[in-house]
Design brief:
about 140 residues, two-stranded antiparallel ribbon, elongated
Length: about 140
Amino acid sequence: MLAGLFDKTLGLLEKSLNLRLNQQELSASNLANSETPGYRPKHINFQSTMQAVMGKDRSGVLRRTHPSHLEGEGSESGIQLRLISESGPASADRNSVDMDTEMVRVAENGLLYNATVQALSRKLAILKQSVEGVR
């Protein structure tokens, strides 16, 4: 009965929040490894991953289409992440983490995370208002 109450928007917002959280963790890892020789920064291709989530087959399982994609099974969000490993200009120790780029990515991701939380909050407020209006 309640299944019809929640549309796909809530699920997509949840997956978006999980992706943003995963990106924040990757950025933290990139920053932590900024002086690790040979380290290449990684980030999530958000658009590609969300397109895969929206276009997944009816079984609900995402297909692994590239060897660098993480397995979706066992992850909390059930999302198959599409990672990009950057190979920009490297320092003498072949580390290509650019602190400024990572800090911009952290700030941007935080803003987008907050915007998604606001959208989710508004969606839930609409549902709450609908339920309370029925009384």
